[in-house]
Amino acid sequence: MMKDRQWARLAGVSGILFVVLVYAGVFLVDTGILGGLGEPPPDAGGEEFIAYFTSSHAALLLKSYLGLLAFCFFLVFVGGLCNAVWGGYERLPMLGLVAFGSGVTASALQLASTAVMWAQVRSAQRIKGLDPQIASVLREVQDILLVSAWFPLAAFLAAVALGVVLTPALLPRWLGWAAGVLVIGFLGVALLMAVSPYSLAWVFVYMLFAIWVIITSVILIRRVGKSQTHTL
Description:
The protein has helices at residues 2-30, 46-55, 57-86, 94-126, 132-166, 173-195, 201-222. By secondary structure, it is mainly alpha-helical. The protein has one domain (2-221). The relative contact order is 0.15.
């Protein structure tokens, strides 16, 4: 159906925009194009983070804005992907509901983490003499929200993996197996962060997830037009 093809294309474009916006924000801050200090190490004190937030005010606010916008596109990607995997059913089966609900929950936690970072930057700029302990606590809250998002994200990927592998869909089965590997990756780095809070191993897992989103998006854009007629 034409409507399904349009939704699949929209989901694919949204997935690509999600990755582009996330890494555009990272690039703007890490390269120092807009000026400011480099990001302190994760175990830095509150004073260092206050100096970082103050000097990199513009870049961090732009990164926050791009991050919030990115996860709005991710929500569209989640909805379109669920429709592509389970769209042939008259109503979304339980596995599809788990995938959609988990994707929405992961997005909400990521949005909250980004919002906390925005609050830190604004507070450091507007409140003179911001307490370093408060800055440290806000930084911890931001990181905890980020790590918490990996659990529903893993549930989303697991549901999609099962849906792609077990049901006929637009997506190839190898993409489902790749999603299964990412489930192990996100759960593994979440455990690692509990043991070693300042580990940066999660960055590599997130990069693999970004690659998976791009590949899935391209397939959604290119392989639209096939339809399934399953009924519950």
